[in-house]
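Colleagues,

Please find the record for the two-part complex below.
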Amino acid sequence: MQTVKMVITGPFSSGKTEFIKTISEIDVVSTERSITPDSVESQEKSETTVAMDFGRITVDNDLVLYLFGTPGQRRFDFMWEILAEGMLGFVVMVDSSKPETFREARSILETFRAYAPTPYVVAANKQDHADAWKPEDLRIALRIEDENVKLLPCIATDIEYVREVLLELLYSILEEMDSN
Amino acid sequence: MALKGNLAVFTTTQLLNLINLSKRSGSLTIFEGVETGEKMMLGDGRTQIDKLVAGKPLARLNFREGKLVFAEMQSKDGHLASILQRSGKLNEEQSRLIRQRAEALKMSDKGLALSLINANYVTQKDIIQSIQKHTVSIVFDLMTWKREPFEFKEGDQAPASRILVPIDLRNIIIEGTRIQNEQLELEKEIPNLDMALRFAEDPSSFKNIKLGANEWRVVGFINPKNSIRQIAKACNMTDTEIRRIVYALLQAGLVQMVKPQVEAKRRPDIRHPVPRNTPDRDVVNRLITKIKTINKTP
């Protein structure tokens, strides 16, 4: 049995867990912990990932794809390097409606690029939100000058978008193989 | 879809860069920030800043195809007579009388400008230069604002009565960046001096760009093989000085940050790359086939 893995990363509350839940064939193995009720984090969501999320897509008897979601909070970033090991590629999730998280998204992107020069795509999540920035604006805000890097609209709860993001990442992997 | 945010997390310079690069037309309004008593969480999940909501408008900029064409700020008198006075084309008494007359006759800026030119008070060039100076000074002021809410409205046009003077944003961005340089901010923008630089793909971006002596020195060393740290050493610059220059060049779209071709000397806090799993084509194709068939209901 061969297993391959992809990493879903991004800032706090960008939709990583939701993304994996939407496409995983198993109930996501989550390490979410409740956020203190009175904290600022709790205004965003009630639970946060502290170690990783884990989803699975079985291709056939010989091949399984694992999806690993990284913890969004910086204090758990020691997990990032562990999760990045051996990844095929990665998805950077960005909450398009929260410009206050763009700088962190860029920093995470650079960190993961430093871990491994694998292909990656950026998912402009929450495109159904009224205040969402358009993907082309996010490209400038995140300073992704390389037009070969795909910046894709996404709604992490919608299987169509999630499937498209993963497919585009796989196409990028193929393109990289061709260029090598 | 309006572009909304807060200058605490997306600065004036970044906004101008976005508008310039995407060649937008519309209006950018900066509002007074009204405290809500709540906090807003940044993307690292631990840093909190005050959550502000938009109050009364404080400033407005208008753009046409990425060029700045008009600016007004509540705290800066934008009447043409005042603008000409501030740039030394009219004295205080002239300005006062012309303003009184223009207001009595309900003249627009355009009408007033025509009257002043016909009366040989000023030339067309004087008016354009004075308005440019006024507009740019508003932008430089805005660059020092740190927390106000903003909103960009696509297609929203400047008042028809005002004189619109198109100004290329790239030189403003470079100059404004010089003004607003603050070490902490720059460190956040360019955290890793071990990255390298390369020139932008489009050589036309260099047209009409004015660089200072220090910027030219840095430009001479730009090469994907040289890390920013190495360039700073070669130019005998401090980390802050090199950050200032690289930030300006990045914002103007002249260079791009890339991983150095030859690995730069590592800083102790940079982690080593993890081993990479190289897949074969068959595995990737099987994954694609599988994912295409997934139709799970969320």
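Residues 50 and 75 of chain A are 9 Å apart (CA to CA).

Comments are welcome before we finalize the supplementary table.
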